[in-house]
Structure formats: structure tokens, C-alpha cells
Sequence to fold (264 residues):
Amino acid sequence: MTESRRGRPKAFHDKTEQNTIRALDRAMALLQALAGSDGMTLTELAQAEGESPATTYRVLTTLAQRQMVELDPRGQVWYVGAGTFRTGAAFLRRTNVVERARAPMQALMRATNETANLGIEQQGEVLFLTQVETHQAIRAFFSPGTRSALHASGIGKALMAWMPGLNPGPLTRFTEATITEPEALARNLALTRSRGWALDNQERTEGMRCVAAPIFNAHGEPVAGVSISGPVFRLPPDALPELGARVRAAAAEITRSIGGAVKS
Fold:
């Protein structure tokens, strides 16, 4: 068997319906619906996915046997189960950047008193892997698995600045401050490269700022980003250069710990 056949058949590129499993696709859709909610009843899930309650229940009970979902009998509400977490955790084990980043992120949170975040690029978006939360009452929160648009994210812009071929897709507007013009985004990324850190200046959420820097592998390629995020009144403009330097130093420390090449 050739190398190209080991992980996929000849029909790998065939995405037609005959090459998919409807029952499996239905199960994945239910999991995704549950993952994006705080729990759903059988009726809510069936309506959301356009399936009958009987069909939805069969899928849920099958998933429950694998601990992928679980039912709270008190309110008859379904939730994502521990099996889903264990399966998802395997993704994090593909790289040691999460483990290596933990201590620098904790130090960054203590130094800035703001939440520290770690994210990567996946399928044209930022995927948040982990964070170290500040103890401040008002704080940013990105649960593992949260996604964000590249152009409206500190980590996203930090990655794009050193990955010229990375396509951010449509420049969707989230706030009045969101950069939606390609030329303006290009200028912003050039500024990011020149100073070594990126800024989300209320571009995704009004009242919140995020300062980020990229993490590089041994080939000098950005593989992740680290950031701090918090309300604008705790991240005023005159404090951003110092915060940027701290975030950049944390990113460099993580880069060295994974054997990466630190950019000057």
C-alpha cells in the first residue's frame, strides 16, 4: 500500500452524498449543536436539526453509550459528555505547545492581571485552545474550542502578520472598530510586524482590547499565538507598548520551549 493510501481511500476527494454516512453526519450535527449551547431538551434538539424526536432520541442514546452526551434527568436536558472531552483532548496532544505555554501564560496573567489566551489558526479562523483567567471581576473569557475571525482577533492578526498567504475570508463587521477594508488590514498587519505584537482594539467586542504575539516553530513559521485580553479601561492606549512587550516576551519564551526560532 502506498503512503497516500494509508489514511484515505481512492474516493477521498469525492464529497458526494454516496460517499458520506447520513447517520454519522446526523450524530455530529447533534454534538455540534450541544457544544454550542448550555444544554438542550430533546424537543429543542429535534427542532434545531429538523429531525423527528424519535430519530433524535435514537442518536442521543447511541452517543450516550459512548459517554459523548449525557442526560440530566431533573430537567430532561442533554449536555455534551465526558467522552467528547476525552476525544477532543486528543487534538491538543498533537502538539506540546499547550503544555509548554502554561507556565508562561500564568506568569503573563500575574504580570498584567489580565486573562492570557492561547490559540491557533484552523480552517481560516482562530481556535482558542486554553486560557489562564484573571481574578478580576470584569474579564474576557474564551472557552477551549471557541473560534473567532482572524481579522478581528489579536491572535488572528498576529498570525496573519507573519503568514502572508493566510486568507482571512470575508472581513465581517462585528463593531464600529472592525477593520473591513483589505488595504486598511494590510496596513495594520504591517504595523504589527514592525512592533512585534498585534492589537484587537474593540474590533470583535466593544469595550474589550486584546494584545497578542505569535509563537514560531523551528522553521520560523507561526504555529500559535498568545495574548492578553481585558476591558479598555484597564488596557489604555498609553499602556499598550509595555503590555505588547510583555506578551511578545511570553511568546518568545514559549517559542524557545518548543524548539522554535525566535524572531528578532
Remarks:
- The chain has a mean pLDDT of 88.
- The radius of gyration is 21 Å.
